[in-house]
Amino acid sequence: MSGLAIALAVLGGLAGSVQVAVMGRFGERVGVLEALAFSTAIQLVLSAFVVLAARGGIGGLRHVGSTPAWMWIGGLMGFTVVGSITFAQPRIGATAVIGILIAGQLVMGAVIDRFGWFGVEQIGISPYRALGVVLLGIGAALSLVR
In angstroms, rounded to a whole number, what is the distance separating the alpha carbons of residues 65 and 15? Predict the structure, then answer.
């Protein structure tokens, strides 16, 4: 399964880069908020179709109301990511947006691991991990230079 997980992570990374470029252009054409709303609607329709097809019904969605509300933050984070990239791409370019996005994700990931937030395994920030975060931050800053 780890091979599939790696392949899906790579696919997600590739899709995310395409999404940055496309959403930036789409936001310029129809408006940032309108592009965000339309993209979210497309995701809802596709996700509902996949759940219905794969589960033969609503699957685990019937249990959403019994989960802690903090777990719903993923939807807010997705909204934030898509809204941010839609606004930022035309202004600073796809490379800078992706570099900064990844650097931000790595910093937050290290903090989440360090403190074990959201129920994840607690993993310390080793010197190598800290160096990786710093180097990626430098790379993200350099991506702003045209």
Answer: 30
pTM for the model stands at 0.83
Cβ-Cβ contacts under 8 Å for 132 (sequence gap 6 or more): 106
Tens of pLDDT, residue by residue over 87-134, are 999 999 999 999 999 999 999 999 999 999 999 999 999 999 999 999
CB 115 within 8 Å of CB 65: no
* Count of other CB atoms within 10 angstroms of residue 18: 10
**For helices 94-115 and 2-30, what crossing angle results, to 10°?**
130
In this structure, how many other beta carbons lie within 10 angstroms of the beta carbon of residue 82?
21
3-state SS assignment for residue 144: coil
Q: Which helix (H) or strand (E) holds 64?
A: none
pLDDT tens string 54-67: 999 998 988 999 99
Q: Which two tokens stand for residue 101?
A: 């996005």
CB neighbours of residue 12 within 10 Å: 11
